[in-house]
Amino acid sequence: IADGQRELIRSYSVKNRHFIGNTSMDAGLSFIMANQAKVKENDLVFDPFVGTGSLLVSCSHFGAYVCGTDIDYNTIHGKGRSSRKNQTWRGPDENIRANLRQYKTENMYVDVMVSDASKPVWRNAALFDAIITDPPYGIRESTRRTGSHKDTIKSPDGLYAESHVPVSQAYHLSDIFTDLLNFSARHLVLGGRLVYWLPVYRPEYCEEMVPLHPCLQLISNCEQTLSSHTCRRLITMEKIKEPEVSATGLHLS
């Protein structure tokens, strides 16, 4: 009926990848997510929680231009402690771009930057053909956003000094998914897809817990069992209309 591509799971194995982290996505799951998003040649794909860029690697294999953001400066710049056994610190060329170079898809690399997913940094337009991401759950990677419970002193023009390093605070799961769906409704092209993982406590799970948005149609909801009590669900949504200017239009259980 068709030719399979299971050899990609081996040839793109994380074990042999130049740059990895604690939460680097398994190659097989990365390619499944790219397939769910219908990633094709010359698409522009974005990951707002890019980490070490495993999802960008898979999308670039299918000919898509890839970009991403993450709040973690060290991960984006390939600095700090290594996740590899018997290696203390990351090398000078351990970064996302080097991973794409390893698989000969560096020409599909747009860029990655340090940015807070809860803050708007993009112009208000439909920019991306697909948004594919694995948001942090607060287990192996902390959930953080910029901000403080204290009043932060700004200059009179409202701008921070160039040397300013923002304070971070907790970024709750419900807020992560609220922001992700609102962002996707604004910045996906019509017919573009959002694919992401939703962590679930299995004994209490029901379908009403999946976040919904009037501009996004739920396409699929697949379970990956992690333990007897926990799992994560791969959610695929497709943009069916443009958002109204005045409505946030988000429904969360």
TrEMBL record:
Coiled coil located at which positions? none
Stated EC number for the protein is 2.1.1.214
Q: What class of enzyme is it?
A: transferase
Q: Which GO molecular function annotations are given, in alphabetical order?
A: methyltransferase activity
As for family, the record states: Belongs to the class I-like SAM-binding methyltransferase superfamily. TRM11 methyltransferase family.
All residue ranges annotated as the Ribosomal RNA large subunit methyltransferase K/L-like methyltransferase domain in the record: 16-146
Question: What InterPro entries does the annotation carry?
Answer: DNA_methylase_N6_adenine_CS, RlmKL-like_Mtase, SAM-dependent_MTases_sf, TRMT11
| Name of this chain's protein | tRNA (guanine(10)-N(2))-methyltransferase TRMT11
Keyword annotations of the record: Methyltransferase, RNA-binding, S-adenosyl-L-methionine, Transferase, tRNA processing, tRNA-binding
- Give the UniProt record's GO annotations in the biological process aspect: methylation
Keyword field contains Iron-sulfur:
no
